Amino acid sequence: MAEASLNPRSLLFTLYGDYVHPTGQESVRVGALVRLAGELGVSGNALRSALSRMTREGWLAAERNGRSPRYRLTARGRDLIEEGTERIYRRQGSAWDGRWLLVSYSLPEPRRGQRDRLRQGLSFLGLGSLGNGLFVTPRDLRHQVRDLIRRYGLEPDVTMHYGTLEWPSDPAQLVARAWDLRDLEARYARFLDRLRAEAPELDRLDDRESFRRRFLLTHEFRRFPFSDPDLPDALLPSTWVGHAAHAAFLEHNRRLKRRAERFYCSIAEDVTIVDNGDRTLEGYDNG
């Protein structure tokens, strides 16, 4: 796996999402977090700075247990991790009933921060921008969008409509305006080529290298949900390579998971891997 650029904040989100939360831990020692970050080329000082920043932002909470400080996810942090896991690991299926969800908002320049957070949240859910505060998706994400606007206190500023569209009559025209599928497919193809080249050696890796490879695999793949709207098959090109890339990601993850978790647990003290039947991989198909 080509080593993706890591920053400490993103590293912590991936670490808590792929290891801490799934193994059922309440909190993790700072020393363990620093050592794990070191395995991935991130310095202890940078990691500690990120911990402090994420605590101030409300994603993590610090606690004392003996002499060593520990950090746990807050309720807000857990919600984000679970939302991210859903976006990364699960596709919503190929069926489509022809309806669209339109979300519009108007926030003035003095409220740029709220506007940016809303736009980022809608993009993460898979909605595409049509410009001028108008987003669209063929998925029924009304519940998720309501949660998002409530989280940011924007109920009076957002309008939603769910139904059929009069124009354009060709759905492909709307897809082309909202998403750059050509660029996305090219990135998926490069990702898939690398995974296919690395597949033969996966079972020969030791625990430490399995952890590093799986971590970088997830860290790289987690960028796709920000640009992949997970469109129904009826709205995708017939040669769409995204499904094969997602299936290869899941297969690599599965083959590395046990050894990677074992290495993580060897550092994160008093951790027993929760036998959940690989629940994070249940219900996936090959696209």
Describe the structure.
With 287 residues, the protein is of the alpha+beta class. Among the domains are: 100-163, Alpha-Beta Plaits, CATH 3.30.70; 180-265, no CATH class. The protein has ten helices and seven strands. The protein has a four-stranded antiparallel β-sheet. The chain has a three-stranded antiparallel β-sheet with strand order 1-3-2. A hairpin with a 2-residue loop joins strand 5 (128-131) and strand 6.
Quick structural summary:
This protein has 287 residues and is α+β, with helices and mostly antiparallel strands.
Briefly note the structural class of the backbone.
Answer: alpha+beta
Instruction: Give the ordered list of helices and strands.
Output: HEHHEEHEHEEHEHHHH
Beginning-to-end CA distance, first to last residue: 22 Å
The parts where pLDDT drops under 50 for at least 5 residues are 271-287
Describe the biggest sheet? 4 strands, antiparallel
The DSSP helix count reads 10
State which percent range the strand residues make up: 5-15%
DSSP helix fraction: 40-55%
Got a strand count?
7
Could you say which overall geometry the principal axes of the C-alpha atoms support? globular
In order across it, which strands form the biggest sheet?
5-6-4-7
Radius of gyration: 20 Å
Report the mean per-residue pLDDT as an integer: 86
Topology at a glance:
Blueprint lengths: L7 H13 L7 E2 H10 L4 H13 L3 E6 L2 E6 L1 H15 L10 E6 L6 H14 L2 E4 L2 E4 L4 H10 L6 E6 L7 H8 L2 H18 L8 H15 L20 H26 L20
Antiparallel strand pairs: 1-3, 2-3, 4-6, 4-7, 5-6
